Amino acid sequence: MFQSLSSLNLHFDPLLPVWGIIALAIACVLVLAFSLFNQSYKGLIWRFIALLVFLVWLAGPIILKNHREILPQTILMVMDQSESMSIGKRTEIANQALQQLQDKIPANTRVKIINLHNISQQGTQLFQALQKATNEIPASQLGGIVLITDGQVHDVPKEFPKFLTLPNKKTIPLYALLPASKEQTDRNLKIIHAPAYTIVGKEAKIQLQVNDTGDAHEKSAHLTIVQEDKQPITMEVPVGKPETITVPVMHTGKNLIGLSVSPLKDEITAINNHQTLYINGIRDKLRVLLVSSSPNQGERTWRSLLKSDPSVDLVHFTILRSGEQNENIPDSELALIPFPINELFMQKIDQFDLIILDNFENRFALPPYYIASIANYVKNGGGLLLIAGPEYASQFSLQNSPLRSILPATVSSSKDVINQEFKPELTELGKKHPITHDLDRNNTQWGSWFRHLKANHTKGQILMQAPNQSPLLILNHVDKGRIALLLSDQIWLWSKGTNQNGPQAELLRRLSHWLMKEPELEEERLSAFIKDQKLTIELHTLENDVGNKEFTVTSPSGTLQPIQLIMHQNGKATATLSTKEEGLWKITNGNLTAYAASQSTDPIEMTELAVTGQKLAPLLDNYGRIYWLGDEPNQLKVPGIKIVKKDKASNTASSMEFPERVTYTSTKQSIHHILSPWLALILGLGSIFMAWYKESFS
């Protein structure tokens, strides 16, 4: 392929000054003239030689000369800056070693430094970062790799990686510098398996293992189990073998469990002797009884919502006739069964977590003692939800039954049934309550309802209201149980897309779970967590001020410290506290209690913390070497760096050897005539002289 001279980056060397070029040109003209007009043949040969010399110089070929420069080879240094490198003086030793290595770099060699952070929560992925870095360096320039790490690498390949193998099948030298003087002694507690969820009242099985490294030879260790308010339990477990323990799950929501193992003599750190984990307590099956006294649009909404939740076991009845009715209908023609009143409301009522009475009108359906059984069920800890329509203001209303004593609101007469379009809205309390506090967070208007009941007497918490401030959704605590009353039977409209939708499914879901005492929906809720050695306390409350509430923080060592929370908007108060102790922290004000424990952002990284060469040794024994730097930053044994002129570097105790990588690059191209201008001038003029001499004196 030919390339025009204009497209090349060429440099013309000034081999002949301008006057010389002019002289050559004049000489050429003279030779031509002399050859044309001189008829003598005595100097013909010399004239021909002169003419040939000048023609070769003027029109002859040229030589393109490449000027090359040797490129420096690259030594790649990987600085491990993962969490485990923060133990002791490792970071200081690593930084000092890097500085000394940079001072020892030979001429025509450059260093590329890669800082490695464990951000994947999968431990130190050193070789993954190494592959990415080597892709950016030409293989012909990569002299070798130096790893400054504690040896806790979690992606060491079983075979030498292909990306460190050159096309000629030769390998790139790989060295590791460890910030210690020898293998370190350490004990760690590792959680092999723990369930994420366990049924409340059952025991969770946790599989763990205690491991010792270094010179330790103990066969067993003491394991301490701390679980919130329970007394600590200590037991003996084997070292180096998996062990399964059981802990009870005491309540719904997060159950915090702290595990710690006795320290090992002369171990480097006790950080990894502790582990904390959360196990979510769940109910086996949420049994819900839904009773409608007549078919209506809302019961389908309730049924769809409850049946879509796999954790809910729904029992649904729609009453079309009372148990006492007897119309003398033959059994072969009777499609409906009598309502099993005694079984549901006397024998098995305590088995339900929630009872929903939807537009329930007690038209001889339930005798008074069954209604009284529902009231006792609520007082003993059950949940009851009433969806009220026009029937709530009739003579068969539940207001006129033994249930009246626990109802949060009453309606005087049918005149208080308001049939007009309105849009529900949250009360100031509703904007704070966990059930409704963020239902209108997008500031979108809810769809209209067309009927509600005007209550004349209320008790409890009003979360939603009609525009005239008439209560719409009321909650109340009754002894050990809870009750909720929705004074409208129009919520089903939000599922039909009429006008605009509303948060129907989320509202009903939260309402149901609040009645079933879901911890995340409690009005007064205290929580805490630890991150980056900082304890954060959060209080969710319906009160406007928490200045009179003093909380006490108990550290793992038993130290008590009072702390005052700062109130924010929407019923949230917070406080922060610096923490250094490992273990279980307790926060309480007497009524509310929360627990917290520090957890590593990368549990894999913080399990094994001893400086070790065992993980890298299988790879480096054949393709490099491990160097121990020492325990003190000012007394390091940093190996030297040598560039050797052979294909494979040798392993020596004093120096890291890297094979010389000679790579050239073209810096410029210059044009040279095949015949030097000075030589052409001498030969040309000499030939002219000889021609003149022959023709003049022969």
Task: Note down, in words, how this protein is organized.
With 698 residues, the chain is α/β, with parallel strands linked by helices. The chain is elongated.
Key phrases:
single chain; 698 residues; alpha/beta; eight-stranded mixed β-sheet; five-stranded parallel β-sheet; 10 helices; 38 strands; disordered N terminus; Contains class I glutamine amidotransferase domain (PDB:2GK3) (PUBMED:17968677); vWFA_dom_sf
Low-pLDDT parts are 1-16, 331-335
Main sheet summary? 8 strands, mixed
Fraction in beta strands = 25-35%
Radius of gyration: 45 Å
Straight-line N-to-C gap: 53 Å
Mean pLDDT: 82
Strand order in the sheet with the most strands: 16-15-17-18-26-25-24-21
Helix content: 10-25%
What's the total number of strands?
A: 38
Q: Structural class of the helix and strand makeup?
A: alpha/beta
Q: Tell me, what's the shape?
A: elongated
By DSSP (H or I, 4+ residues per run), the number of helices equals 10
Transmembrane segments: 16-37, 44-64, 675-693
Keywords: Glutamine amidotransferase, Membrane, Transmembrane, Transmembrane helix
InterPro entries: Class_I_gatase-like, vWFA_dom_sf
Organism: Commensalibacter papalotli
